[in-house]
């Protein structure tokens, strides 16, 4: 059998893993999550979640991919043939995400263009939901394809296809080596620009002023864990696939810690960027920061355009902002689709080109639904279901399998063998108790609130 592809360098691997982790979630979810959950005080549960779940889980996944040299189904098949299905469940979740995540990337691509002359006009909300999305009244009413969205989604799928067919090193690694450093530079430029705007400091006060009383609320802690899992792309096939391309001698534990810390640093930068912008907008419009703070689609495509309208040099900030979202999104999309493709390559020994073409074509066909006037409504439903149940569910099965059925001893030996710093009982306890408890709690709570 041909030798498994490998990353060209350690930095290349870390940048690819960071590229997967840093995504729309860092920019539009983290700042609001922090603000809502005690501001500066949120740092405490966040860092706690990062140390007790984020890094330990990442070490485990990097270790699994590296040890069994395969994508999720292959990893779990190697552990025991009856577990292969868990791998495929994870792949299914990843594939589902790839289909609608790309729709949002399509919007950010379109908005990068709109930002040049603020085509959204004086009413960004009306523009986004009306003229642009052509939102219908119900998810059962599609209302026809929106051509600019279809065009942008085609482009996004095309970029992903190109990166994956070009190979691990020549495609994925190369793309992330450009995208991720550039993303950091652009965000820093944006920050320098926006923190000097009037009102920016008020915005940052809102974000960072700690409200320690919130820490008594258990849901704040659950939110911190939820954010860490989604943000790090752990628990559903992605990091397994990426770490399966690591050379034999690789420092697993250090790579995991570095990946997690870079992702966390980027989230903090995004928080500063977003809240400086919100502060400036509040000042310009005579509102309160609390009234304009928000997350998700509303933040990115309604609030930010409105904020850009009131800024000096709107084209500059606007274009850069949406370009950053696009780059963060594309590097994550590549990782989701790679997780799916590599699973089929491992299983059926198809060529990379054939596999990526089939996966991307199927994904693209399904994305069509999200380019219609009913797209956002369907996206909301699917995203809610995937985030609240599917991701938690497959991650939970994985962690229970590893800590209670298979046991963590083998993987512990494996990751410690090549790593600078070793993990011991604390690592096991974090996975067996803390991570299982919090994931389990969140999963049960979500089922409960959804019914
Ligand atoms: N980690 C990414 C983010 O924070 C999200 C993501 C989801 C990435 C699914 C890959 C796969 O936006
Ligand atoms: Na990314």
UniProtKB/TrEMBL annotation:
<feature type="transmembrane region" description="Helical">
    <location>
        <begin position="12"/>
        <end position="31"/>
    </location>
</feature>
<comment type="similarity">
    <text>Belongs to the sodium:neurotransmitter symporter (SNF) (TC 2.A.22) family.</text>
</comment>
<dbReference type="InterPro" id="IPR000175">
    <property type="entry name" value="Na/ntran_symport"/>
</dbReference>
<keyword id="KW-0812">Transmembrane</keyword>
<feature type="transmembrane region" description="Helical">
    <location>
        <begin position="429"/>
        <end position="448"/>
    </location>
</feature>
<dbReference type="Pfam" id="PF00209">
    <property type="entry name" value="SNF"/>
</dbReference>
<feature type="transmembrane region" description="Helical">
    <location>
        <begin position="358"/>
        <end position="379"/>
    </location>
</feature>
<feature type="transmembrane region" description="Helical">
    <location>
        <begin position="224"/>
        <end position="245"/>
    </location>
</feature>
<feature type="transmembrane region" description="Helical">
    <location>
        <begin position="178"/>
        <end position="204"/>
    </location>
</feature>
<feature type="transmembrane region" description="Helical">
    <location>
        <begin position="315"/>
        <end position="337"/>
    </location>
</feature>
<feature type="transmembrane region" description="Helical">
    <location>
        <begin position="145"/>
        <end position="166"/>
    </location>
</feature>
<feature type="transmembrane region" description="Helical">
    <location>
        <begin position="257"/>
        <end position="278"/>
    </location>
</feature>
<keyword id="KW-0472">Membrane</keyword>
<feature type="transmembrane region" description="Helical">
    <location>
        <begin position="43"/>
        <end position="64"/>
    </location>
</feature>
<feature type="transmembrane region" description="Helical">
    <location>
        <begin position="385"/>
        <end position="408"/>
    </location>
</feature>
<protein>
    <recommendedName>
        <fullName>Transporter</fullName>
    </recommendedName>
</protein>
<feature type="transmembrane region" description="Helical">
    <location>
        <begin position="85"/>
        <end position="109"/>
    </location>
</feature>
<keyword id="KW-1133">Transmembrane helix</keyword>
<keyword id="KW-0813">Transport</keyword>
<dbReference type="InterPro" id="IPR037272">
    <property type="entry name" value="SNS_sf"/>
</dbReference>
<keyword id="KW-0769">Symport</keyword>
């Amino acid at each position: 059998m041909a030798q498994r592809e490998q990353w060209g360098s350690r930095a290349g691997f870390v940048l690819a893993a960071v590229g997967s982790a840093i995504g729309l979630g860092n920019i539009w979810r983290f700042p609001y999550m922090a603000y809502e959950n005690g501001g500066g005080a949120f740092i405490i549960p966040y860092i706690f979640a990062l140390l007790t779940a984020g890094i330990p889980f990442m070490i485990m996944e990097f270790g699994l991919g590296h040890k069994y040299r395969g994508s999720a189904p292959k990893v779990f098949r190697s552990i025991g043939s009856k577990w292969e299905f868990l791998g495929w469940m994870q792949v299914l979740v990843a594939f589902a995400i790839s289909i609608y995540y790309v729709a949002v990337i399509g919007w950010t691509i379109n908005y990068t263009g709109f930002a040049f002359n603020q085509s959204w006009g004086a009413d960004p909300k009306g523009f986004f939901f009306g003229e642009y999305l052509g939102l219908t009244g119900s998810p059962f009413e599609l209302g026809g394809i929106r051509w600019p969205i279809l065009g942008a989604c085609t482009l996004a799928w095309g970029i992903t296809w190109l990166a994956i067919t070009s190979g691990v090193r020549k495609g994925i690694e190369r793309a992330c080596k450009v995208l991720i450093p550039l993303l950091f530079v652009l965000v820093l430029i944006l920050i320098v620009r926006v923190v000097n705007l009037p009102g920016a400091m008020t915005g940052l006060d809102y974000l960072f002023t700690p409200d320690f009383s919130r820490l008594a609320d258990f849901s704040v802690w659950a939110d911190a864990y939820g954010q860490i899992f989604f943000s790090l792309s752990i628990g559903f096939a992605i990091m397994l696939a990426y770490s399966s391309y690591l050379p034999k001698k690789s420092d697993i534990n250090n790579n995991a810690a570095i990946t997690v810390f870079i992702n966390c640093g980027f989230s903090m930068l995004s928080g500063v960027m977003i809240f400086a912008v919100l502060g400036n907008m509040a000042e310009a419009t005579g509102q309160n920061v609390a009234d304009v703070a928000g997350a998700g689609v509303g933040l990115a495509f309604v609030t930010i355009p409105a904020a850009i309208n009131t800024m000096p040099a709107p084209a500059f900030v606007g274009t850069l902002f949406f370009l950053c979202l696009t780059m963060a999104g594309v590097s994550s999309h590549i990782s989701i689709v790679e997780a799916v493709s590599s699973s089929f390559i491992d299983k059926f020994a198809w060529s990379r080109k054939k596999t990526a073409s089939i996966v991307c074509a199927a994904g693209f066909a399904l994305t069509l639904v999200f380019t219609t006037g009913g797209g956002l409504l369907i996206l909301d439903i699917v995203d809610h279901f995937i985030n609240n149940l599917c991701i938690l569910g497959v991650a939970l099965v994985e962690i229970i399998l590893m800590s209670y059925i298979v046991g963590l001893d083998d993987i512990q030996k494996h990751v410690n063998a090549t790593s600078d710093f070793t993990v011991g009982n604390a690592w096991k306890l974090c996975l067996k108790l803390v991570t299982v408890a919090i994931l389990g709690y969140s999963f049960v709570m979500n089922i409960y609130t959804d019914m």
